[in-house]
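During the reporting period the student researcher (J.K.) took over the structure-prediction task from the postdoctoral fellow and processed the backlog of single-chain submissions. One of the processed entries is reproduced below for the supervisory committee.
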Amino acid sequence: MSSEKDEKTLLEQERRELNTIIGKGVSFEVKDVEFETKTRFWGLVKKHIPHEVTRKFTIQEPTLSTLDRLSAEWVEFAIDEQELQKPESMKAARTLAHFHARRAAKVVAIAALGEERLIPKPCKAGTIWVEDEKRLEELTNLFARKIKPSRLHQLYNIVNTMSNLGDFVNSIRLMSIERTTVPNRIE
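J.K. obtained the following structure tokens:
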């Protein structure tokens, strides 16, 4: 009996911590190099001076649009278990690491940008929102280049946690059950 209470208490504490993380977001920093260009002799000679900068990013709970875009990337993760069982499995593992590490960096970039990854474009019907491919690619390259695999894995798991997919799927299940058992009548 007391073990059930302890388990429920721990579960409730974990849920409160998760809600706190989701509400505040998770911040992380990445060190990068930017170049300052100085011109001399009336612009004929250019000197590029490197400066180390620290860029700060925050992963917030994603909106449905961002969650949809993240899901499109998650679906692309595929591992062929048969390839990993062959004698040349290290080659297959390196190939998987190459493709999926970049994809994991892209997932983190999408989550870090959030809705800022979308830019408005005018059209005849009004305004459409398109993905800022250049900025997304820039962040993906930065994360792939500067974040260590262990940290990338940690950030990737944070994105999974922040997406709150378990609660989202459970709420869809509840709506589905309610919808099929009690149809709404139009009056």
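The committee noted the following: The longest helix spans residues 89-113.
J.K. will present the remaining backlog at the next meeting.
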